[in-house]
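Run log, item B.
One chain of 366 residues. Sequence copied directly from the ordering sheet:
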Amino acid sequence: MQISKNFNGKKVLVTGNTGFKGSWLSIWLKQLGAIVYGVSFDIPSTPSHYSVTSLSTQIEDHRLDIRDADSIAKLVQKIQPDFVFHLAAQALVRPSYEDPLGTITTNAIGTANLLDALRSLDKPVVAIMITSDKAYDNVEWVWGYRETDRLGGKDPYSASKGMAELVIRTYVESFFNSSDSNVRVGITRAGNVIGGGDWAVDRIVPDCMYAWSLNQIVDIRSPQSTRPWQHVLEPLSGYLVLAAELAVENKFHGEAYNFGPSSNQNYPVSELIDEMAKYWDHVRWNDVSVAQSHVHEAGLLKLNCDKALYDLDWRPSMQFSDTVKMTVEWYKYYYQNSNQSMYDFTISQIDEFTKIAKSQDINWSC
């Protein structure tokens, strides 16, 4: 699938555009020739990828709460989008314990509000609904979760994503189920993305980069926890491929897809730090896994991505070493050039990612 021609000149609404993944996606869509509209409640961190890339100068930006049904409905009617990528969310596990109701209303009711707004459009639109790998009821088995496995979760964040999945399924089956429906929906699940410009709290890479930029020691809660590390551009490429496929035919309408790294890309946090240390001087960290008590965090969570390969011909293109190298290089450039916009450097990494994909005979980005 050649994605560039599918978005050139199209109106694309990105909810959560000020977030880490949303800002990377918005910049990539701009590179593909799309007319990008962003909507977010606020800027989630200081600094942020959105701010340091001066993204507000490149897109039409709107501030509203996804929980405000009337406002999101009016905005959708005003924009008349060809594509919607829904990333607006409370996206972290630990804050979900502090504000479970806010997490649930944002992630579940916010999703319902957007889907309800799409019902009134009198034109075709493709909606890619981004949930999370944590939507699965994680029992920490060693094989990857498939799209048909049970949804759920022990923490408020995971539960909220499971609720969002039920909302999406309800709207697909109740309102967008006819062959002539204007709305085509794709569902995506990914997690543990890393990459330059993430400054969310209680995340391993931002915590390390910030501490090490100040020559400080970073505390690591769970050095033996294993994660399927992937660069942020990997799942975003999957979202774009799925959207492009849905734009030309509806056979994948209402389907869910996992977008994750290869099965051999699972590494413990300690090995991630060791790999990061290859590209950053004076790395220091403390193991505080015993010294502190913490809320529940999964020790293992893997995804099976065979369905995306079979249906969409999508597969990840970067090795663990490439993912870490590209991530650390982004932060190093930022901390060495903090008075410059990171927009061009971000584009250069998108171009680098595209070249890596082509070297693996992955030509969706042509």
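Observations after the first pass:
- Residues 100-119 form the longest helix (20 residues).
- The CA atoms of residues 52 and 338 lie 8 Å apart.
Flagged for discussion on Thursday.
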